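ingest -> validate -> predict -> emit
validate: passed (alphabet ok, no gaps, 213 aa)
predict: started
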Amino acid sequence: MSQEIIYVGDPMCSWCWGFSPVLKAIHDRFGEHAPIRIVVGGLRAGDTQLMNAEMKAYVRHHWERVHEITGQPFCFDLFDRDDVAMNTEPACRAAVTMRGLRPAATLPFFERLHRAYYVENLDMTSADNLSRLAAPFGIAADDFSAAFESAEVREQTRSDFQLSQRLGVRGFPTIVLRDGDELSMLTAGYRPFEALRPILDQWVRGAPVSTSP
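emit:
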């Protein structure tokens, strides 16, 4: 039976940014046997309210914790601004756009979205910014924008959010392993590659996977 690694995350989820090197390691070791399918979860899709001081403190705490645990870089200049909203729908839709235009670039583009937000503090609600991020992947800004704004990609993005719910995802990052019609939870939340590798080694050989805590 065919095997697939379903990764559910959000480009503006700090723990997903922390998990980014782990996801790459999983792809490098297991991608040829079980391809990674990226599903966007919509962490705060549609939230257009500007962050107040309380929200900034809450988000900053999470960023600091992710940096402490994973070593991933962060730029905290974002919290000096008063024009920042946490609407993750555009960034999620950008990932879905890339998935449709250039499937093989979906994983590196997802990482690029993370870096643009967490290291460069780029406004991820700007369609122009998202189009520019796609350019190094060989997609013209006009082509990306047309797909990004299309009704089809908007619906595909909503379908990803719904799939995340159907899979029982309660937080990001989450990895679900599919072996034919059988689904198993590998991890719900951040775990280092060293903890996941032996489980994946067994899974690709056909051993059952126990649901992680």
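The beta strands are 3-9, 36-40, 174-179, 182-188.
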